[in-house]
Specification:
Blueprint (H helix, E strand, L loop, with lengths): L5 E7 L8 E7 L3 H12 L7 E7 L6 H7 L6 E6 L6 H11 L4 E5 L4 E2 L3 H8 L5 E7 L6 H4 L23 E5 H6 L12 H11 L4 E10 L6 H22 L10 H13 L10 H23 L17
Parallel strand pairs: 2-3, 2-5, 3-4, 7-9
Antiparallel strand pairs: 1-4, 5-8, 6-9, 7-8
Helix pairs in contact: 1-2, 8-10, 9-10
């Protein structure tokens, strides 16, 4: 039988209390932001008892100490060591394995959930196998960082005109479903692991719903370089996603020639990086265009697509 996740801290306020909801927070070096997220969770407007599972992905800062200081605010609090494999997918999976609840809610350590986030997602899981919520950009980020992006995401995400997906940092899923699917695929190490998970979920016959009341305030990269770098990897991973599903599924086409044309266009407007008002939008667009080209080269032409890495979950800790 598979070995269970490594529990490094566990505290339960009322050992006999039934807990059906577990909030899983994957984190790597999140000491500077984790406390704010835990304060938001402690202030949830809900009567549902829920536990918090911190999945520490090898932090070298004070993340664990920050987490332990908040433990008494929750019905149950667990810290899992998920540092054996780097990446948010593995961290989510290990947190879900350690969870007591059958309803798994996932948020990120650098965001802030709204007061009704737990209630909304938990309620949604009474109707669907998995549910997604909204990301709000204009609370934690100044206007120059938000740029021309919409302040709130409306509806589930879509890419390549295929099935919808929920944001990985604002998703609820029934534990038995997550484990049956093998969790999040660790081969998507820089983005689109949530789209892959949602697609596998729906192709397996499970349902995905939308909970507009489940809002997270999403923290973006504050600098242009960070935004460009993030979008580069998002774009590159989108091509990996396309390569995985293009055969046998009605995905929209992608074009290497078109991606080169887009990159050239972005490079010709690079002067916008000089202007403060357009710098971040241009950095995001340029990073995305470069990432798409890199994805075509790596995954389509050189055939360097990594194999899918999902888990065979046999052990569950309760």
């Amino acid at each position: 039988m598979a070995e269970g996740p490594k529990i490094v801290f566990n505290r339960t306020r009322s050992p006999g209390e039934a807990i059906d909801v577990s909030v899983v927070i994957p984190v790597y070096n999140g000491a500077s932001t984790l406390a704010e997220e835990l304060i938001a969770l402690a202030g949830q407007q809900t009567r549902l008892p829920f536990e918090v599972v911190i999945s520490d992905n090898g932090s070298t800062d004070d993340t664990v100490e920050v987490a332990i200081r908040a433990a008494d605010q929750f019905a149950a609090f667990t810290i899992v060591d998920s540092g054996q494999v780097q990446g948010v997918s593995h961290a989510r999976n290990e947190g879900a394995r350690a969870a007591r609840g059958h309803k798994i809610l996932i948020c990120d350590a650098d965001d802030v959930v709204c007061p009704k986030w737990v209630e909304a997602l938990a309620d949604g899981l009474g109707r669907y196998d998995a549910v997604g919520g909204a990301a709000r950009l204009d609370r934690l980020n100044p206007p120059e960082v938000v740029g021309t992006q919409p302040p709130v995401t409306l509806g589930l995400g879509r890419i390549f005109g295929f099935l919808p997906y929920a944001l990985g940092g604002c998703i609820g899923v029934r534990q038995e479903v997550l484990l049956a699917l093998g969790g999040f695929d660790s081969s998507f190490d820089r983005g689109h692991e949530e789209a892959d998970f949602a697609w596998r979920l729906q192709l397996a016959g499970y349902s995905l719903g939308w909970c507009p009341e489940a809002i997270v305030d999403y923290r973006q990269r504050p600098d242009s370089y960070g935004a460009a770098r993030q979008n580069f990897y998002y774009a590159k991973s989108s091509v990996l996603l396309w390569c995985r599903y293009a055969t046998g599924h009605p995905l929209g086409p992608i074009s290497f020639r078109g991606s080169l044309s887009t990159l050239l266009s972005r490079m010709l407007t690079s002067y916008r990086l000089i202007r403060t008002s357009t710098r971040r939008d241009q950095a995001r667009a340029l990073g995305w265009a470069m990432g798409v080209v890199a994805g075509h080269v790596s995954y389509r032409f050189l055939g360097r697509s990594p194999r899918a890495h999902i888990m065979d979950f046999e052990a569950r800790v309760n």
